[in-house]
Design goal:
Length: 287
């Protein structure tokens, strides 16, 4: 991606280096180190931090210490996130404006190790997530080192795809989709609700693809291989691939995000069409 020199978003709260909240975890329930891996993979792209704490005992944040200066690399990563978020803002503002609707930007919080959100306390295993309670995307950028090392999903566009996916959940929240889905949580079996969550996650992948469609129309922004990096990242976080990696077998009824093939296909559909009306994963007979 050729992102330097472009507009940066003002909707970023950079809490890195603020002190307190290390990356340590206390693992409960006898699940050991494997629990950390499972939690990390589950949280990537859409998991709720409150769900993780049901199986992991997470340290509460330590008292805040003195702020630490960010390294040059950390500052560059922050600038990258701001630039990608600005592009995503421009795309969704234009799409909503074209439909005669109003789009409200989410805030994006950069944190190190731990953070409190309206959705609960998130520790080291919490990866990127969107919280509809405060309309914020939360990202610990150290997680992307884990993503590249553990999942084999390198590249700057892989990170851009993750941000676009989480903002896709914000678009769903603005449109009222999130409320409709969550209203059915107590009325469906776990299996049926999981299937509903798969459709919601695949739609967020589609919406990430819609952003990529318009980002690709911005002269000089994307480079050859960027979209492939995004599709590789989508494939890396498929439920089937994660289950195979962490437990050696696949349980389709427990899927909450979709298979690798499904995630890639819906992202690709959004990228190829750029038409939000083509993303009705809830009405699709075949996912």
């Amino acid at each position: 991606m050729r992102w330097q020199g472009r507009r940066k978003s003002d909707n970023v709260e950079d809490m890195r280096g603020a002190g307190g909240g290390g990356r340590g975890l206390k693992i409960g329930g006898g699940i050991g180190g494997l629990g950390v891996v499972i939690a990390i993979l589950y949280m990537l792209l859409g998991g709720n931090p409150g769900d993780v704490t049901q199986s992991l005992q997470v340290d509460q944040p330590a008292a805040a210490g003195p702020a630490e200066p960010l390294s040059a690399k950390d500052q560059e990563m922050g600038d990258f996130v701001r630039t990608v978020l600005a592009s995503i803002e421009d795309v969704w503002r234009a799409r909503f404006r074209g439909a005669g609707a109003t789009y409200t930007d989410p805030r994006l919080v950069l944190f190190s190790g731990s953070v409190d959100s309206a959705c609960g306390y998130a520790g080291a295993a919490s990866g990127p997530f969107y919280c509809p309670g405060d309309s914020k995307v939360y990202i610990d950028l150290a997680f992307f080192e884990d993503m590249q090392r553990e999942l084999g999903a390198p590249g700057d566009f892989a990170l851009a795809y993750v941000i676009a996916h989480e903002v896709g959940h914000h678009v769903q929240n603005v449109l009222g989709i999130n409320d409709q889905v969550m209203a059915r949580r107590g009325r469906l079996s776990e299996k049926d609700f999981n299937q509903l969550m798969v459709r919601m996650e695949l739609q967020a992948d589609f919406l990430a693809g819609v952003w990529a469609h318009y980002a690709n129309m911005d002269p000089g922004f994307l480079e050859s291989g960027d979209i492939e990096e995004g599709m590789n990242a989508a494939s890396a976080v498929g439920d089937d691939r994660i289950m195979k990696r962490t437990q050696g077998y696949v349980v389709p009824d427990a899927f909450t995000h979709g298979t690798s093939e499904q995630r890639v296909r819906w992202f690709k559909k959004g990228f190829e069409t750029g038409d939000i009306n083509q993303g009705d994963t809830f009405g699709a007979k075949v996912l």
